[in-house]
Amino acid sequence: MKRKSIKKGLPPGSLIHIGSLNKEKTKIQLISYNSRVLKSEIFNDVDTAITNISKSKITWINIVGVQDSVVINKLGDRYKLHPLILEDIMNTEQRTKIEFYDDCIFFTIKLLYRVNREIKSEEVSLILLNNTVLSFLETSKEIFEPIKNRIIENIGIIRKQSADYLFYSLIDIIIDNYFSVIEDVEEQTERLEKMFIAKNTEGILKNIKINKYDILFLRKAITPLGKEIQKIRRGGHKLLNDNNIIFFNDVYDHIIQMVESLYIYSELNISLQETYHSLLSERTNKTIQLLTIISTIFIPLTFIVGVYGMNFKHMPGLTLSYGFYIILGAMIIVAFSMIIYFKRKKWF
To answer: For 136-152, what is each residue's pLDDT tens digit?
Structure first.
């Protein structure tokens, strides 16, 4: 993994890959379409891909693998992209943001998914141009497969719309994927609540902390999205069709719903943690209470044993044949009397 410090001293726009290295060779899928015609091809060579780009149809270029600076640079030259855009594409540790240029709109967003119990994220960069959308993925995730199928099978209105509708569709499916991750957090929170109800608290603190980390991770990734989508909703850019702004309103509603849900789960998780500490404190208090009662019962018994343990020759009961049993019985009576007393007082 290359870190940001490697770019120290380099000029802005330097194409240095930052992030996890994908060993797979960069692949380029080119999909050109209109309402009647469709063409879909996959290329391993960027020059061949560029020569096959259609100027008369809506074109979607999906690039898998952002570590190859040659591919990124040639696509940048083809579409006259700003050097800072190319730099941001290769920096997979970018924050979520949208930037408006004269001839394009650049958007970076996090793709979230689970590997076993851990939430992972990857950077996705989207560029909207005139009749063209570029998408950049770190690895060959199948997140965009439903969109590809809708285009190929001519399902819905996607092939009748302009490029900004494709741009919206890619953003929408990434955000919709967040719901499945959030649902996992919801299920985990419900499991923790059921564990409390069943009084099965073994290992629960570790699970609460994992749940807390997951919620914080999701809030960090999702919360900034609302502000960025709001910029698109304002419209005003020549690449955004006013009739399609309403679709971005729907995306914004989804983001608000997710942010509110994560806030609720965060509060529930805090409540569970406080409940756990309360239960732990209660158990400690009960243990101390039990030990205190036992100690209190033995105080008079210890006193009796101490009195009759003194080395005096003349003491009441020493010469009786059943003196030992009498004292033992007295001690038992005292002990049971105290237990009954404590029980009536509801001390245990």
So the answer is: 998 877 889 999 999 99
284-312, pLDDT tens digit by residue? 888 888 888 888 888 888 888 887 777 76
What does the pLDDT look like over 190-213, one tens digit per residue?
Answer: 888 888 777 766 778 888 888 899
Low-confidence residues of the chain: pLDDT under 50: 1-2
Q: Alpha-carbon distance 11 to 84, whole Å?
A: 10
Contacts of 235 (CB under 8 A, 6+ apart): 242, 245
How do 38-43 and 97-100 pair as beta strands?
unpaired
N- to C-terminal Cα distance for the chain? 60
Burial 111-124 (b: 16+ CB within 10 A, else e): bbeeeeeebebbbb
pTM of the model: 0.79
Report the SS3 class of residue 12: coil
Please give the Cα distance from 314 to 28 (Å, whole number). Answer: 107
Look up tokens 């979230």; give the residue. 112
CB atoms within 10 A of CB 97: 15
CA distances from 306 to 107, 257, 296, 298, 309 (A): 84, 72, 16, 12, 5
Task: Report the C-alpha gap between 23 and 25 in whole angstroms.
Answer: 6
**Domains detected in the chain:** 4-278 (3.30.460.20), 287-344 (1.20.58.340)
What is the overall mean pLDDT for the chain?
Answer: 85
Which DSSP category does 138 fall into?
A: S
With contact defined as beta carbons under 8 Å apart, do 304 and 327 qualify?
yes
Phi/psi of residue 347, each to 5°?
-85, -15
Q: Determine phi and psi for 332, rounding to 5 degrees.
A: -65, -45
